[in-house]
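Usage example:
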Amino acid sequence: MSSAKKGDLVFKALADRRRREILDLLKDEPKTTGDICAKFKKLDRCTVMQHVGVLERAGLIFSKKVGRFRWNYLNAVPIREIYDRWINKYASPSVEILTKLKHDLEK
Amino acid sequence: MSSAKKGDLVFKALADRRRREILDLLKDEPKTTGDICAKFKKLDRCTVMQHVGVLERAGLIFSKKVGRFRWNYLNAVPIREIYDRWINKYASPSVEILTKLKHDLEK
DNA sequence: AGTATATGTTATAGTTTTATAACATGTCAA
DNA sequence: TTGACATGTTATAAAACTATAACATATACT
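Running the assembly step on the lines above writes:
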């Protein structure tokens, strides 16, 4: 798969609120697939699993099987890449905005 | 609009590749709406404008009208918020992954 | 005023995504 | 091995999103 396609998967994966909530659950510690399903009582178990699949294909989750359980881990690397794409490392966002405004007004 | 809803708009806006390309165009300097349309020759002008509208409603773009021209600026603040949501400030992502693996293996 | 330029709005067909149901595999413990 | 548990796969209806066309407004210049 090309790098561009992989990036698409990351953003598509983050586009759904339930999937972002799953990543929130995994932020501090891994969870089993069953743990995740239990947190979404209003949602069908199959639906949750499909969301987990989308996140895994995007590389935002990686997993490790132990006996009957599948432990899911957050991989935050793609999220750092989003940050690096648009944030100037040598200026805070607010400074950046003001700089651009100034640049325009001087025209 | 609630904060949660606003966040939804940001992620939905980032979900489309054309919209991400528009943000890339604005990273270093503002562009007029016409400038942006000119960069997407294969896409209808109306389509580009709708994308710009989605980005603006999400707060990823803000604009300033000067005469007949509308200057569009990138606002990277929501992107920093994405970063802050999942990245632990006191550990690099790779360190974080290893820490979680270790935590699991010790069970 | 009249014309060209630059931008904005609304409706809709085509495409993609989400939630669910039905079905299926692999593991543990008595 | 039998039953219960935990997870995984495939198909489909409903919902959401994208691209386009048709229509509309605002500004600058002669």
